[in-house]
Design a protein that fits this description.
The protein is mainly beta and 239 residues long. The chain has one domain. It has 3 helices and 16 strands. It starts with 19 loop residues before the first helix and ends in a 5-residue tail after the last helix.
């Protein structure tokens, strides 16, 4: 007998084309193993599926961060000057990685001041000795033979999106320049902070502000996750 009562998901409406069990497994895999927070324009859909409006500006806001003692990663976002395009920054492996949308479908990758364009159908491998390798993107092949050193993370440019992948901590950040998604490991349940919420499974407490208390207004909640003007000025990305 299949027990579904304890599943931490809402069962989908049965499909005549896909067996019900397959739908349940797919839903669990998506929501539990690869939880995600989506930012669609000014709408934020948290890890726990709370939805609210937030207008980004040129000063970064903390979108999501590992709230454990390891602080393995953080993700911030801000708009480009006089633009609706968003710069998504990832703090990972003691590096600051800026995913900067450029003209057309191009992206500029800024890793601690090293600025490199990433063209469509390319991938960037950042190695353990800080070497950066750019190769044609081929999802069907393993890392190039010449890459012998450990890969810290990979950045892929495909289908008008740029995606940063750090498999060892279960982190994926994908952006098209306006909308973006943060995907985190289920092991971080109840250990995330930022605009995307704490991922504790409770949609009603995602408005925990940076000071640790809940606030009644989503606008005030979002303001607490904005970084200081001084930090934004010092870390402003030259464009």
């Amino acid at each position: 007998m299949i027990r579904v009562k304890g599943l931490p998901v809402q069962l989908p409406t049965p499909s005549v084309k896909i067996p019900m069990l397959d739908q349940v497994v797919k839903t669990v895999m998506i929501d539990e193993i690869t939880p995600s927070c989506k930012v669609m324009g000014s709408e934020i859909n948290t890890f726990d599926k709370a939805i609210f409006e937030n207008v980004f500006d040129e000063c970064d806001q903390l979108v999501a961060m590992d709230g454990t003692a390891s602080e393995a990663f953080a993700v911030t976002a801000a708009t480009k000057p006089q633009s609706v395009l968003k710069i998504v920054s990832v703090f990972l492996e003691k590096k600051k990685i800026d995913l900067i949308p450029s003209y057309g479908a191009d992206f500029i990758i800024n890793i601690d001041g090293q600025i490199k364009p990433l063209m469509f159908s390319e991938r960037m491998l950042v190695l353990s000795d800080d070497e950066i390798v750019i190769e044609p993107l081929d999802a069907c092949e393993p890392f190039p033979v010449k890459v012998r050193k450990p890969v810290l993370f990979e950045i892929r440019h495909h289908s008008a999106n740029v995606e940063l992948v750090a498999d060892h901590i279960g982190l994926k950040v994908k952006t098209d320049g306006i909308n973006f998604k943060v995907q985190a490991s289920h092991l971080l349940r109840n250990n995330l902070i930022g605009l995307c919420g704490n991922f504790d499974g409770n949609v009603l407490n995602d408005n925990i502000a940076a000071h640790g208390l809940t606030v009644p207004s989503w606008k005030k909640f979002a303001e607490t996750w904005k970084l200081t003007p001084e930090w934004c000025r010092v870390n402003r990305i030259p464009l």
